[in-house]
Specification:
alpha+beta; Nucleotidyltransferase, domain 5; 5-stranded mixed sheet; two-stranded antiparallel sheet; globular; Integrase core domain-containing protein
């Protein structure tokens, strides 16, 4: 395994976990599945995670806003995985990133 080193403030890696968690509505008892957004700073591995109802663009952007607030700043680069909300067209050499 090759260890990667990142400069402080350089990168944050973002994605949804792939696993959903059940959330119970206290009033109705209804169970809904929530997505888990995860962000990790490259240099320190400091982690932010939160539950959202979907992986749609509004939830994706909202999670980023709350992540930046939590970290107290914005890194130089945001590195998304190939999820639809963040990457419009996947490619190993030239992916098209959602401009939002």
């Amino acid at each position: 395994m090759m260890r990667q080193e990142h400069a402080a403030g350089d990168k944050v890696f973002v994605d949804y976990s792939g696993k959903k968690i059940p959330i119970v509505d206290r009033k109705t008892g209804e169970i809904r599945e929530a997505e888990i957004f995860v962000a990790v700073l490259g240099a320190s591995s400091f982690t932010f995670a939160e539950a959202t109802w979907t992986q749609t663009l509004p939830d994706w952007i909202g999670s980023h806003v709350r992540m930046f607030r939590f970290f107290g700043g914005v890194p130089r680069l945001i590195v998304p995985d190939n999820l639809k909300s963040g990457v419009s067209s996947a490619s190993f050499y030239d992916p098209e990133i959602n401009r939002s």
